[in-house]
Amino acid sequence: MKLIIHPAKFGNFARLILNRMKTPAWLKQYNILKNQEEYGLKYNFLHFPDAQLAREMLDERDAIIRLLENRVTWTHKSTKADGSGLSEGCRICGEGTWSCLFINGICNSRCFYCPSPQHEVGEPETNSLIFPEPGTYVDYLKEFGFRGVSISGGEPLLTFEKSLSFIQTVRKPLGDAVYIWLYTNGKLFQECPAEKPNSCSPHRLGSTLQKRE
Q: What are the chain's domains?
């Protein structure tokens, strides 16, 4: 069975397909090889629309959007149909004004959808930049004017003190000017220290699992 991309969700992808008609042959081949490398055998089950199907998808998507026009609150640069119930962190994420810090590279879950390698603890990293010390990460946030920080992994609670150190160091000079959230599967909540001052805490915890095992 092949995967079909639905126009209501992936209209921008359809536009990308149309633009690919102008892509040089060498770049197209490079993208194919990178996709094959990333998805392995699953690549054979991906179905990419041709130009005609892409146009049909755009037409269907535009019709759906017209029906929703006055019923929803558009966010994420008009790519998400209703953001009225989103948290502050999700809104900042959609604006592209946040930094995602991968605090470690280990996890105590094996979620099939996770794109992150889980081979070693490693050093905190974002956009191929390494931040062994939280102070230099704060300088990075100030330099580029980020409004939000997400602490991810791996599983951040496996290196609890390191995660706490980064959160505390960001909160101290920046306060509420930078919204902080942490992604966790929640398995280690009971093993973490129960009491920490508010100045050390993220603004929000986001679960990476729908339910505990």
A: 11-68 (no CATH), 88-207 (3.20.20.70)
